[in-house]
Amino acid sequence: MAALVVAPAAARTYTGAAPDGNAIYSIAGGDAIYVGEENLDLSTLLGQNNGWLVHFSSVTDKAVDKQIPISNAADFELTKTAVGTTTGTYYVFNTSPFDPATTNTVTLKGTVIVDTPTVGLDVVLNKSLIDSVNGKTVTRENALAFKLTNNLAGFNTLAWADQPKMKVEVTLPGGGVTTQFGGQTLGPVAANGSTVYVYNASLNGVEAGTYTAQAKWYSDRPGASFYNKGYDSNAATFEVLTKSLAITANKDTVVRGNSFTVTITGESVQEYHLFVQNVSNAVTDHPLIAPGQSGIVTIHDQKNVTVKTNAAGTRSIQFNTSSLTDDRSFTIRVEALGAASSNTYDEVKVRVEKGAVTVTAAGTGVYYLGEEITLSGTNTDSDTIYLFMTGPNLATDGVNLENPGQSVVTVASGSGNFTTKPVETDDTWTYKWDTSRTVRARNLDAGGYTVYAVSQPRDKGDLSGAQYDTASIQLRSAFITATTSGATVAKGDDLTISGTAQGNPSTVRIWVFGKNYYGGADGTLDYRSATVESDGSFEEEIDNTDALASGQYFVVIQHPMGANFGVEPGPNAGEISGLGIPTAKLTGLPASEAANALINALDSPNVPDTYVKLTFVVEEPNIFIDPIGDKASGSKFTISGTTNLAVGDKLNVEVTSAAFQPTTKTEATGFSNVAGTATVQKGDGANKWSMDVDATGFKPDQYIVRVESVETDTTQTATFNVIEGQATTQPTGNVTTAPTGAATTAPTTAPTTATPTQSPGFGALVALAGLGAVAFLVLRRK
Fold it and tell me: Do residue 688 and residue 752 come from a single domain?
C-alpha cells in the first residue's frame, strides 16, 4: 500500500456478446480501458461487486484528484462525465473510498489505464500511400486508399473478430452516403492501435465532384460502445475531376512587365511537358518560365520544361514577362509524355498587353539651375524607368540628365548612359534630379528642355514600340541680389545684408574688405556664411561695426551655383584657390586690390559661381537737433532732428528747465522738465527723429534739450526759451548742430527779433553761465 505497486496480470479477454451485439470484455490488472466503453467486467480484478477507480495527482503524497465509483463490477460503463479530462493510471480499490487517514479499511486491487479513444482518417494515393489527397483534386486515372489510425492498442491482443470495428462512409457529390466506393467495401475495419488501409479504391468511371469520407463506429458489433458518442474520425474530402489533364491561368490578360501563373491538373505525381506554343527561338520576345521553381524536373529552355505534379495531381508554374515581350496572345500547352501526348493535352491562352508610362515634374515647371527637381510618374510596362533629356544644341537623340555631355544610346542590355530608376511594386517611380550636379558636369545654359521617361533603354530616335512620356521644363540661370540696411552705418550700429539667392544653394558667402581689413580679426582673411531659406532669401547681420574704422567698405556676396563653391579659402592662410584659377594671397594685397582679385577669380570661366557687389560707409555717430525757437508757455510742439544712426535705434530725449532758485512752501517749484524716447525713422537723406512736447506747466525760462544714443554712446544738446505771450519763430538760445565728442560745436547766437514780455530772471542767467561750462565739457569729452 505504501508504494501502490501491483504486479501486472493478463490482458483483457472477450467473454461474449451483450444483447445489443456489443462485446463484453473481462479486464485484468494493467489493461487499458477507454472512455465510452460499456459492458466492462472488472469483477475478476476487483474480487467483489463494487469499488472505486482512484487517480492520484501525486502517488507519493497519496493526493487524490479523481475517484470514480464502481457500482457493478460485472457490468461497468466508463462515461465521459465521470472521467472528464483526467486520464492515465487509475488504482482499483475495494468498496470504501480511498482515504489516506483510514488506509486500513482500503485494499488495492490493481490498476487500469484510462484513455480517450481517438481515430484519424486520411485519403491517400494507392500507389504511394504517403501522398494525401485530403482537400485536393484527383483525376479518374488514380486509385485511392483509405488510411485509418487510432490509439486503441488495448485491443491488439484479441482475435480480429473480437476487436472493435469501424466502417468508412463516403458522402457522394449528390448527397448520398455509401460504404462501397471504387470497387471496395469500406468496412468492417478493426481498430486495434495499428494503421489499417482499405486499398485500391478506383476512380475510373466515378462521378466528378467533391467526396467526403469519415470513419464511424458500428452500432451492433464489437466497438458499439463508442457508437454515436462523438468518437468518430475526422472528415476527409477530395475532388474528382472530369478531365484527365487540364491547364488554367490565373489571368486572361497581363500587362507586360508582370507575371502570371498556370496550374496543371493531371494524374498524381506524374510528369508532363509544359511549353509556350508557336514562338520563335528569341530569348526575350515571349513569356519566360521563372527559374528555380518546385516541380520543374527538366529545363529544356526558358519556354519549355518538364514538370511533375504533386499528390493532388496539380502543379503551378509562374511565367514572367518584360518590356521586351511581344504584346499579343500566347498559347501555353501541357501534354502527356510519350505516345499519349497527341491525345492527352490541354491549352490556355494569355494575352500580354503594353503597359503605360507617365512623367510629371513637381512645381510650376520653371526652375533655377542648381535646384533639385522631383520627377515622378508610373510605369506599368517594365521594372525600370529610363530617363534622358533633349534641348538646344544637345545630342539629337538625348543626353544623360546629370551629365549632358553623355549621349544616350539604345541598347539591348545595360544602361546606355540613361539615367535609371527602379519602379516600385505599386508601379510608381520617383527621381530627384539635382541640377547642381548637372551644372558641375557641364555649364548648361538656361532655356527650355524636354525630359523623356521610357520603359526601355531607347533613345529619341528609337522609341517605336516602347512606352514613354515627356515633361517640359524651363531652366533659368541662378542669380543673387542683395542690399544693405543702409548706405552708411554709424559706428556701433548693426548693419544687415539681405537678399535673394535663386538656384537652391544652402548658403552664400559674404566677403567684406576695408582699409587693412579682410573680413577677419587682426588682418586675417575670413568670410561670413548666410543660410539661404527655402524661398531663396538670406540675411546676415554685422554686429561689430564698433570695431571697424570709419571709411568705405566693399562687400562681395558669393553664390555657389551648385552644391559646392568654385572659389575657396586656402590652401594657406590668407589665400583663395579654385579649379582652373591661380592661387592668390589676398592678405598680401591692399584691401581694394584684394576685393578685385576675388572678383577676378569669380569671373573665371572655370568657376560656375556668381556674385553681387555692395559698398557701405562706416561713420562716426552723430545726432543733430533742428532749431527749436521760442515757445509759448502751455503750448504743444515737436522737437526733431537728423542722425546717421540706424533706423529703429532708440534715442533718449530730456527737456530740462535751466531755472534753479529757492522757493517758499506756498509756491510751486520753479524747476520743470519732461523726458521721452524717439525712434530713428528712415529719411529722404539722413535718417530722422522727433518727439512731441507738451509745455503745459512749463514756466517762462530757458530750457535745455539733451538727446542721447546709449548704443553708440553719443549725446547732443540744444536750448530754447519758454515765454509768455506770442512765441517767435526764430531760435532764441544756443543751438548746437554737431555731435559731442570728436565733433565740433557750432557757435551760439543771441536772439534777434523776439522781445520777451518777461525777463528770464535769475534762473536763466545761471543757466546761461552753466551752458558755457556744458559746451566746454562737450569739447573735452573724448
Answer: yes
Burial class (CB within 10 angstroms; exposed 0-12, middle 13-18, buried 19+) of 605: exposed
- Could you report the per-residue pLDDT of 368-417, keeping only the tens digit for each? 887 889 999 999 888 899 999 999 989 999 999 988 989 999 887 667 89
Q: What pLDDT does 513 receive? A: 95
Cell for 575? 589665400
- Specify which residues 507 forms β-bridges with: 531
Furthest CA-CA distance within the chain = 157
- Contacts of 275-279 spanning 24+ positions with Cβ under 8 A: 275/300, 275/303, 275/304, 275/305, 275/332, 275/333, 276/303, 276/304, 276/319, 276/330, 276/331, 276/332, 276/333, 277/330, 277/331, 277/332, 277/333, 277/347, 278/331, 279/303, 279/330
What does the pLDDT look like over 116-148, one tens digit per residue?
999 999 999 999 999 999 998 888 888 999 999
492, 621 in Cβ contact below 8 A?
A: yes
Round to whole Å and give the CA distance between 208 and 136. Answer: 13
Integer Cα distance of 572 and 550 in angstroms: 30
Q: Domain check: are 494 and 585 in the same one?
A: yes
- The pTM of this model reads 0.47
What gap in Å lies between CA 278 and CA 569, rounded to an integer? 70
Query: Are 386 and 436 members of one domain?
Result: yes
CATH of the domain at 390: 2.60.40.10
pLDDT in tens, 723-744: 986 655 444 444 444 444 433 3
Q: How many domains does the chain have?
A: 6
At 129, give phi and psi (nearest 5°): 65, 0
pLDDT tens digit sequence for 681-698: 988 878 899 999 998 888
pLDDT band, very low/low/confident/very high, at 593 (cuts 50, 70, 90): very high
For 668, the 3-state DSSP assignment is: coil
411: which strand partners?
none
Q: What average pLDDT does range 549-574 have in this prediction?
A: 90
Range scoring the smallest mean pLDDT among 240-244, 405-409, 525-529: 240-244
pLDDT of residue 539: 95
Contact 141, 133 (CB under 8 A): no
Strands 384-390 and 357-361 turn out to be unpaired
Q: Does residue 759 sit in the same domain as residue 631?
A: yes
According to DSSP, the β-strands at 143-150 and 196-202 are antiparallel
pLDDT digits (tens, 9 = 90+) for 262-289: 999 888 888 999 999 988 776 678 999 9
Domain that holds residue 680: 623-779
Contact assessment for residue 235 and residue 213, using Cβ atoms and an 8 Å cutoff: yes
Classified as helix, coil or strand, 770 is helix
pLDDT at residue number 412: 74
Assess contact for 537 and 498: CB atoms under 8 A.
yes
Give the residue from 353, 375, 397 where a domain finishes.
353
Strand-strand pairing, 687-694 and 673-679: unpaired
Whether the upstream peptide bond of residue 222 has omega within 30° of 0, thus cis, is no
CA 763 to chain centre: 82
Of 170, 196, 173, residue with least CA distance to 183: 170
Cell 515647371, located at residue: 365
